[in-house]
Amino acid sequence: MGTGGQKESFRDSIGTVDAEGKRRWVFPKQPRGRYYRWRTYLSFVLLAILFGLPWLRVGGAPLVLLNVLERRFILFGLSFSPQDFHLFAILMITGVVFIALFTVVFGRIFCGWVCPQTIFMEMVFRKIEYWVEGDANAQRRLAQAPWSAEKIRKRVLKQGLFLLISAVIAHTFLAYIIGTDAVLATVRQSPLDAPLGFLAIVVFIGVFYFVFANMREQVCIAICPYGRLQGVLLDDDSINVIYDYERGEPRGKIRKGQPKKSSCTDCADCREGRESCSDQILHRMEAALERDGHRSASTTPAPAAAPTQNYTAADVLQLDTEPVRKGDCIDCGLCVQVCPTGIDIRNGIQLECINCTACIDACDEVMDKIERPRGLIRYDSESGVARQQRRIWTPRVMAYSGVLLALIALNIVLLGGRDGLDVLLLRTPGLLYQENADGSYNNLYSYQIVNKTGDELPLDFSVVKMPGAKVRFVGTAPAAQPGKITEGALFVDLPADPGPAFNGQVEISVTVEGKEVEHLYTTFVHPHKNK
Ligand code: SF4
Ligand code: SF4
User: Fold this and answer.
1) Which InterPro entries match (predicted)?
2) What average pLDDT does the segment 275-294 reach?
3) Which of 286, 331, 337, 389 has the fewest CB atoms within 10 Å around its CB?
4) Could you say which ligand is closest to the alpha carbon of residue 29?
């Protein structure tokens, strides 16, 4: 995909690395416009969710917990244990298919609007930078200026705020892993009392600070795996931030006597021999540019022979046949100046583009000023721009949708039929039976209870269909903690004569407050086992 035959040498290097391989720091101009405003509002909502989620609780348990250390996961109130790994894996696969489908249809909208990296970078850290150091030109000047009291003040303030925000993000990140209670406990403790917790927080702060103060767009360009997938996921029908090269090219400054190709309304005045062209769009463009200080004609004087008022029929006829009548792009470069990844979207869809829409806003502003329709850069597909064909339901999308629906159905079935409690009872290997003082016989068992609910469950075990049999716990009866694995041991006692029906197996009923929650079968080694 590209600008129709333009040289593609820009794909040989990335815009943020110079010819010597050194990092070229990007100073993007602050965007302004409707998309930037909407993204700002959405970022407030998403940041509130991100910071608030670990504090939300359902029945005392966190709403979301991703405790990889203790292998304990809670997603929106649903507890997952290591035994549920298959469910977790299917959920993850469903998520990946959803992202693939979403990308095939809507390109990298996720990157520009929802990705935490973009939200923190563009809506938090970059805004702080604009506030402390000013817009792009002021930042560039400050970077090049020698160290002074003013520069030190601004740099200390900015980096101090960056560190502070990184600390907040690090603590939140940790809260997702170990829970808010553990994070608060770590914060209240002296670093000497909890050196590992303290070290983890310091490492997280350092990583986040490094990412947002230094790595920045390099995360999207060189590290993020999702960015790398674009090449295989996008096709000509995917919607992306795209430059309409059909309308914009050949780009060029507005010059008198060279109306834009889109300015011609095809009124045919010229062809009918009328004296002057009634198309006054060029004059309105020039007046608007002059008014807003963007006038290019002042830096590139019009040809001496160019008409300054209306065009004669001869002029227009000549321009009509001119092979290089200019497109709507006035080559002002604003779309490049606002780009946080330092690329020129006019080169075509690129791996570096995170679909942040800054160039759409910048170009729309220019189009407003020169009184041309907005959308020279817009959300569209390659086939939309090149052939005016916009298709969502392509065979590829239908196939992905089918797979996604099947996976969603599988998730519903598996999650719907999932027990809130798993009980595992195993006879201790290597041990036979022991005779009790009353003549009965016992076997020793170990149990493991996985409580996936949000409540503490007091469990009781009893032997069924065997009069005189009983269960004795080693220690107290288990009270399964919510979202945790409870382990212990118990004895099963069978009478000296287990009866004619005994075949070496016992049935155990597990109850919670009198209600059976599990029914287990296990072996029992007894000296009087019947065949
Ligand atoms: S912002 Fe300026 S340079 Fe970029 S596409 Fe629009 S008119 Fe052309
Ligand atoms: S080209 Fe740059 S400014 Fe435009 S959407 Fe892509 S990343 Fe943003």
Assistant:
1) 4Fe4S_Fe-S-bd, 4Fe4S_Fe_S_CS, Electron_Trans/Redox, FixG_C, Ig-like_fold
2) 52
3) 389
4) 2
